[in-house]
Amino acid sequence: MNIQSNEARCTSCHAGYGWKGKDFDFTDPTRVDCLVCHEQTGTYKKFPAGAGNPAPETMVFKGNGKTYHPPEWNKVAQSVGRPTRRNCGTCHFFGGGGDGVKHGDLDSSLIKPNKMLDVHMGTDGQNFDCVRCHSTTLHNIAGRVYTTPASEHRKSLIEDDLASKITCESCHSSTPHKEDAKANDHTDKVACQSCHIPAFARVNPTKMWWDWSTAGKKKDGKPYTEKDELGKPKYTTKKGSFIWSKNVQPEYFWFNGSIEHMTVRDTIDPSLPVAINQPVGDMDDPNSRIFPFKVHRGKLPYDKVNKNLAILHLFPKGKEDKAAYWKGYDWNKAIAYGMEYAGLKYSGEYDFIETSYVFPSTHMVAPREKVVACAECHTRSDGRLAKLTGMYLPSRDRFGMLDTIGWVAVLGSLAGVLLHGLTRMFTSNDRKRG
């Protein structure tokens, strides 16, 4: 869902104070919340509907029934230090409204993981914090899938000790395995993550399906929630139906580090699922690698006449706001308000369409004994790379001429070995008789 018209609720995760409307001043340094990243007491919390502000007084948030207290500012301010996994995870583990909702490889299990979950972050192993790899200069944090990525060239610290520590190659180089290991031949086409992250959501479940079209149902005239066997909500009146999963095998795409996003101005084809974002890359791109992703699917509202996705006004701006969906559960009013707020046309006719959204998987790197086996990709059955077409994958694909040449080479080699052995055997017998 779009942030527009919902700022006061959505920005509870953002590192800013008071972003509750269109007039937020991004150039004002006093709006930056330094504490959310740097405080170490563990007591500093933003109020869920406070537009990025903590509770000014003791308050109960109706959305979850929890009580929020104002920070003890002196203690909090005096505790500042280098960001920890807990600091980063405050937003990145809980983005989208809950633990593991968005990123299948980022959830609260990484606050204190063991090395079986992540060999780099495991507290019984390397015990890396996020900033160990996401190196930072003047608060510009090294990332991988931004407009200006931290590492535009695949260079290791062995080659340049000023290179950003963000890709696997930064520390492990492009030949990370033992000398002459076949796996070293894969690094020009296969991302390290594809083999070393066999599954994500290995401890906590992640949300894989979110269907807004079913939202709005009530019991006895009141909103309600149903939970699944994992203890996660499978239905809520406010947000619709969900499917949560654990130990999820990634989907694989060619990826060069960039992701294309569609906007609400883009025209969609209502007869097909809508890819809200998708990886950029192909097998002929030297910067592309086969990369693992979580693909989050669901259903969202769209304008049937103008054929574009709709902006939905969810969170009420006050008691008098009757258009918010979470107030009156009226799709038409909520869409009309959201589209007008964004300055876009709305026909007054809506429906729901299936959508997808990709998240690259980079965390939860498994120990070497749990690496993806060769046969999981190189197989004629339904292997991990079955959907990646347009290339020849040994043991998966058949190519008559190439297969014939290969078998001729194998049989020729076998014949040569047998002939050589027989020759040695007879010449040895001749020498004995002589």
CA(first)-CA(last) distance: 91 Å
The average pLDDT value, as a whole number, equals: 90
Total DSSP helices: 9
The sequence of SSEs as H and E is: HHEEHHEEHHEEEEEEEEEEHHEH
Low-confidence stretches: none
Q: How helical, in percent, are the residues?
A: 10-25%
The shape is: globular
Class inferred from helices and paired strands:
alpha+beta
> Based on DSSP secondary structure assignment, what is the total number of beta strands?
15
DSSP strand (E) fraction? Answer: 15-25%
Please give a handful of descriptors for the protein shown.
434 residues, alpha+beta, nine-stranded mixed β-sheet
Question: Could you walk me through the main structural features you see in this protein, from its secondary elements to its overall organization?
Answer:
This protein has a domain at 1-81. The longest helix is centred in the C-terminal third of the chain and has 34 residues, at 400-433. Strands 5, 6, 7, 8, 9, 11, 13, 14 and 15 form a 9-stranded mixed β-sheet that branches. By secondary structure, it is α+β, with helices and mostly antiparallel strands. Helices cover 19% and strands 16% of the residues. The chain has helices at 7-10, 35-38, 73-78, 85-92, 168-172, 192-196, 325-328, 331-341, 400-433, and strands at 59-60, 67-68, 136-137, 140-141, 206-211, 225-227, 233-236, 240-245, 251-255, 259-261, 274-275, 277-279, 289-303, 308-309, 350-360.
